[in-house]
Amino acid sequence: MPEGPLITEEEEQEIRQVASDINEKAFYGKILKTKKIIKDYKGKGGLNGDANYRKLSPRSQEIAFVMDKLEQSFKTKGEAPETILDFYRIGKMLGRGAFGKVNLAMHKLVRKLVALKSLNKECLTDEAQKTKLMKEVNLLLKLRHDNVVKIYETIETKKHIIIVMELCAGGDLLNYVRKRRRLKEPFAKKIFKQIIDGLAYIHSKYIGHRDIKLDNILLDGKGQVKIADFGVSK
What we know:
This protein has helices spanning 9-40, 51-55, 58-76, 127-142, 173-180, 185-204; strands at 88-96, 100-107, 113-120, 151-156, 160-166, 171-172, 217-219, 225-227. With 234 residues, the protein is an alpha+beta fold. The chain folds into 3 domains: 9-76, no CATH class; 85-166, Phosphorylase Kinase, domain 1 (2-Layer Sandwich), CATH 3.30.200; 171-227. Helix 1 crosses helix 3 (58-76).
């Protein structure tokens, strides 16, 4: 057996970059192919009636659907269309609460994974609940920091208010600590620093969170802290 790694760190980084470039070229190649089909499409009755569209893979058809909506909106209104739920592919349920549920979802055009928080309007009968919800949404739409959970947009249907949020695949810090019983000091220091950085940013915007606890500190897929739940903030 040869001693040391089979490839150097530089070679590994080069391989990763090549793989990334291939994926990027494949994605943009798919976009360009889809864009050409939309451009060439002259028929009526929607893209579904076009033979070239039907030949596309399901993934490319999703991309074509959103691109067509964008193009038609800019042509007719001169602005981006209002986001609809059909722009997202909805996946498994991540959790359920008193007012609704949270699902994994992916934006059909940009292929970004997000969390869809769906709130049933029938459950939001109390005016105080609605006020608390809208307050939290409006605050988070203004905040942009690596350690604060992001809200990208909101969608309203007849029965639901849907909040498109940053996906925090690592769960909350309470369950993270419970599973491990204790954290090693270097990792604990890293977590604590990120919490302080996030709070410092929040305070710089003259906002007090007022409910910092392990349940309200989420982790993304890479273990990065995301401060959440601004329902009682001021």
